[in-house]
Amino acid sequence: MHITDITAWCNIDFYEAYSNPLYYAKNLYLNGELVTDLIIPNGVTTIKSYTFRSCGTTNITIPDSVTTIGEYTFSGCLNLTSIIIPTSVTRIGKGAFSYCPKLTIKSNKDNKYVKHYCSLNNINWERI
pTM for the full model? Predict the structure, then answer.
């Protein structure tokens, strides 16, 4: 899937996995380059549901401006090994990281919300 603006992509409200072209394309290209390490731009406050569903990225960094991660946002990202979630995130939707078998979620502080979410959903958590 070829896009030119990650901020705009984060604001698209996909209503299900099949409505997101990444579900079929798997690989995300930003301005013609394959994205393996995705950095969500500062200023994004919500990453909507299904936004990166089935994306082939391996590492994701979320900025302090994000407070909400929607439902199934990163679900099915089979190559995703690491995501850094800041303490500003206070809501993670249902299934946001389902079917991400290699994933370790990292928090830059002792983020009790993220740590609890990982515990409830059997996801590896690491403090950085």
Answer: 0.92
